[in-house]
Design a protein that fits this description.
Elements (H helix, E strand, L loop, with lengths): L2 E3 L11 H12 L4 E3 H18 L8 H7 L4 H19 L2
Antiparallel strand pairs: 1-2
């Protein structure tokens, strides 16, 4: 099983320098790793739940995500989050 560090960095402007520093410290710890297979499986399960419950058209296919955002797992997570937000917006109209 391939291990790789979780290298996502908070991008919210609401994140303070102290929070960002503690996040960097956490990422530096050796036990904060995840396997690529586990990450892909988790994102696949989230995708399946969204496809089963959200309206059609809010979530692009994995191939489209790769083309639009890039092949990194964080890009798939970004597309999943956008689909959830789009669904909530449609339900609250």
């Amino acid at each position: 099983m391939t291990e790789r560090p979780l290298n996502a960095k908070p991008t919210s402007s609401a994140v303070t320098d102290a929070e960002s520093e503690s996040f960097e410290d956490l990422l530096a710890l050796p036990w904060v790793t995840t396997s690529a297979e586990d990450l892909d499986e988790a994102l696949g399960l989230i995708r399946m739940a969204i496809e089963m419950t959200c309206p059609a058209g809010v979530l692009p296919s994995r191939e489209m995500v790769d083309g639009l955002y890039g092949p990194e797992p964080i890009r798939e997570a970004e597309a999943l989050a956008k689909a959830i937000i789009a669904t909530v917006e449609k339900l609250t109209e």
